[in-house]
Amino acid sequence: MKIKSQKDFFSGLMFMGVGIAFAWGATEYSIGSGARMGPGYFPLVLGILLAFIGTVIAFKATVIETVDGDKIGKWAWKPLFFILGANVVFGILLAGLPGLGIPAMGLIVAIYALTFIASLAGTEFNAKGVFVLATVLAVGSYVAFVWALKLQFPVWPSFIVG
After folding, report:
1. Alpha-carbon distance 141 to 44, whole Å?
2. What is the predicted pLDDT for the residue at 115?
């Protein structure tokens, strides 16, 4: 077996790994049946479907010839750092870290921080555009999660709302 597209082959392996992990994790919950689904039914089906799609992609990567073999390039360390860092900062700002004395800053501050930090991953930075995007995301998140779904988590920093 010769790999004819490295990108597709390893993407397929990644999909298979994530799909198998989800399907395996779903077995910890009650599966139920098609007529009466349990909490593990959807993750199980989704994991199986993802693993199947990964299998098809990996198989095609060994059968269909590509021009240059679709070699895998270098790791993009800057985007990886900023995207992962933005998510970590979002989690810390949303809920805080009481053990380190960091208070919860709330949803709005966390979304603005997430958007600005993640925007540093690209090659261009437009502060005005990022501010507009962060505002749209903050308003949309507030409407969806706080107003419509009535989820209970801090929206504003604790020192503002008391």
Report:
1. 28
2. 97
How many CB atoms lie under 10 A from the CB of residue 37? 14
Strand partners, 32: 37
User: How many Å separate Cα 51 from the centre of its chain?
Assistant: 18
Task: Indicate the residue type of 64.
Answer: I
**CA–CA gap between residue 135 and residue 46 (Å, rounded):** 33
Query: What pLDDT, on the 0 to 100 scale, is given for residue 40?
Result: 87
pLDDT < 50 regions, the chain: none
Sign of CA dihedral 32, 37, 38, 42: positive
Express each pLDDT in 93-108 by its tens digit: 998 898 988 888 999 9
Element (H, E) at 57: helix 41-63
The DSSP annotation for 19-49 comes to: HHHHHHHHTTS--B-SSSB-TTHHHHHHHHH
Number of H helices, E strands in the chain: 6, 0
**The amino acid at 9:** F
